[in-house]
Specification:
seven-stranded antiparallel sheet, disordered C terminus, 10 helices, alpha+beta
């Protein structure tokens, strides 16, 4: 393992440039601070340098809340706020088949591919971002790395990406959610009913972990929505 001094003592740390990009983002971005000890511990366990944007988030932030909290991007984490950190629950000694780097209020997950994506049934190459869609129950390759993903977000990419998954008044509806809460939608987002009339669905706040479990269950039982949705 590299020491924390090796990981932080880089010639061109990514944080200053990332800070500037976040400040000028096309969508609202709230930076959640972390304390120095927590940030350094997260970076040490992650074993990436502060020259990467992934390392910068781990070292300097608990995470980011994007677009009124619709998307939560992980950093060192903040248990008091209910925001997990990078590597929370991951056995580093066993390697990292995939790394959760963010999730949205509907339970959509962004994960960074590990060394063998195919072993997990994931598309894309090692180091590329994949997204698990709550409306598809499947993974799609985004064709970019973590740093490029952050630039896509600050450029306003989420506005178009989520256009079909937002209903009138969504900003107010999610404004009081904690980072560990999401919106459970019924009929389910992968159903034909929800895709015909999203605004007519029933929605309630639940722990986002509950949404993850439900999605994994239906993905295993039903497969893709064109097979499962009725």
């Amino acid at each position: 393992m590299r020491t924390i001094e090796e990981l932080t003592g880089v010639a061109e740390p990514a944080w200053p440039g990332l800070c500037e990009e976040l400040a000028g983002a096309a969508v609202p971005v709230k930076v959640l601070p972390t304390d120095e000890a927590t940030g350094r511990d997260c970076l040490l366990r992650l074993q990436v340098t502060a020259q990467s944007r992934l390392g910068a988030l781990a070292l300097h932030t608990a995470g980011l809340l994007v677009d009124h909290g619709w998307l939560r991007i992980l950093g060192a984490g903040d248990q008091a706020r209910g925001l997990p950190g990078l590597l929370d629950g991951t056995d580093v000694s066993a390697g990292q088949p995939a790394l959760l780097v963010g999730y949205d209020v509907l339970g959509g997950r962004f994960e960074l591919n590990g060394a063998d994506p195919a072993a997990l049934g994931r598309p894309g190459d090692p180091g590329e971002l994949c997204y698990f869609g709550p409306d598809t129950l499947g993974w799609e390759n985004l064709g970019c790395g973590h740093g490029q993903w952050l630039s896509w977000i600050t450029a306003g990419g989420t506005t178009e990406f989520y256009a079909g998954l937002r209903w009138p008044g969504w900003e107010e509806e999610i404004s009081t959610l904690a980072p560990d809460q999401g919106i459970s939608v019924y009929p389910f987002l992968w159903s034909k009913e929800a895709q015909r009339d999203l605004s007519g669905t029933s929605r309630r706040a639940v722990p986002v972990a509950e949404i993850f479990v439900s999605q994994e269950h239906f993905a295993a039982q039903l497969g893709q929505p064109e097979q499962a949705g009725t």
